Write a sequence for this structure.
């Protein structure tokens, strides 16, 4: 799909993605879903390492890779060769954004660092994602989500409670959040470029992404000098706000203010708890949170999740089921919000992927297609960069570029 065929507020923006695994590709897919043309540049041998993140695979293609790279076009390029660097520069000649998440110093060793490229392409927005950022004592360290979750404080506040082993959040939240922060930074830098013509570097990291997710707990720690610990599904500032077991499963209750607290008691038929001084106001409920949970828990075990959710909705109490991923996929709200969509992959066939989580009234974005095979669009991308068929054949023959067909 060419730029002219793309829809969304970023239609006409060209992004060159030199990124692998997750954080950088998340940034690229967000920009792509909003209409930008994203050209994914992969290494000749094996491509993005996520291509080997299996199982599961569909017709030999990694499901994880296909999720993170849908909507992009792909070229496989030897950036260690002089001709490969020349190809990249021709791609950057009319590009607005470059995304890279290589280890510190890699782009500089290739002669493609920001200080070099800014002189050649002064309007380029150069987005760098890494484990710890481009400055500071840890700038040269490799970055992994698990390490970032541990060092950012996230693992200290995640888990069942005090005395239990440290636990990471289920998804790689620092990878994903770093990609989202990077996309936000790219958009802000692009606005500046539209006003001034000046590009700049956008620099964020998994470490900073993890720290960003600790807003509530950092507020508590900075105000009290005491680091909060894990609380299971409970909230550090409001109660009751956690998951409760029912007769056949689990539901979440968000009675986080006084109005909803009193509504909850009416639904439970436990109005007497309103007069208990331990639970009078949120401050009291937080001070006696475990006793509060113990007082509420027996009520929820008397009926099914569906029964309680119907009663709670009728009573105006925020609540919801605890769904697994397949149940989430089947939920009518997921479908109504187009958060699961179908694409046609060159090798894997018709398959489902996640949709765009931001909706636009005037310039709607969408998933613009499947993930590319390794080198699937190499020839078309080279043509657009001004190479003729003889030059393309020569680059392929010499291993500077790889092309793959289904």
């Amino acid at each position: 799909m060419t730029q002219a065929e793309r829809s969304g507020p970023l239609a006409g923006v060209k992004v060159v993605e030199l990124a692998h695994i997750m954080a950088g590709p998340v940034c690229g897919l967000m920009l792509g879903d909003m209409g930008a043309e994203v050209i994914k540049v992969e290494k000749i041998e094996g491509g993005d390492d996520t291509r080997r993140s299996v199982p599961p695979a569909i017709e030999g293609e990694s499901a994880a890779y296909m999720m993170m790279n849908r909507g992009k076009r792909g070229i496989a390029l030897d950036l260690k060769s002089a001709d490969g660097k020349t190809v990249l520069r021709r791609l950057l000649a009319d590009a607005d954004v470059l995304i890279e998440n290589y280890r510190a110093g890699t782009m500089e060793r290739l002669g493609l660092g920001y200080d070099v490229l800014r002189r050649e392409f002064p309007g380029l927005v150069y987005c760098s994602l890494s484990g710890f950022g481009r400055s500071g004592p840890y700038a040269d360290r490799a970055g992994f989500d698990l390490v970032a979750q541990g060092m950012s404080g996230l693992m200290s506040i995640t888990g069942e409670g005090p005395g239990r082993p440290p636990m990471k959040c289920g998804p790689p939240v620092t990878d994903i959040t770093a990609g989202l922060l990077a996309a936000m930074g790219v958009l802000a830098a692009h606005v500046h470029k539209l006003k001034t013509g000046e590009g700049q570097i956008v620099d964020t990291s998994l470490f900073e992404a993890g720290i960003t997710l600790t807003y509530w707990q950092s507020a508590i720690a900075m105000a009290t000098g005491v680091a909060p610990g894990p609380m299971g599904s409970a909230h550090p500032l409001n109660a009751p706000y956690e998951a409760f077991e029912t007769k056949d499963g689990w539901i979440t209750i968000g009675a986080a203010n006084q109005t909803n607290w009193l509504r909850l008691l009416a639904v439970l038929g436990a109005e007497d708890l309103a007069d208990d001084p331990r639970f009078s106001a949120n401050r009291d409920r937080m001070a006696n949170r475990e006793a509060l949970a113990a007082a509420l828990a027996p009520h929820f075990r008397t009926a099914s999740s569906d029964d309680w959710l119907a009663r709670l909705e009728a009573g105006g109490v925020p609540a919801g089921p605890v769904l697994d991923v397949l149940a989430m996929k089947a939920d009518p709200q997921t479908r109504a919000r187009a958060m699961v969509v179908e694409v046609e992959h060159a090798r894997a066939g018709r398959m489902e992927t996640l949709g765009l989580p931001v909706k636009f009234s005037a310039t709607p974005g969408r998933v613009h297609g499947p993930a590319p095979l390794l080198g699937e669009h190499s020839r078309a991308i080279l043509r657009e960069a001004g190479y003729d068929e003889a030059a393309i054949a020569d680059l392929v023959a010499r291993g500077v570029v790889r092309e793959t067909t289904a």
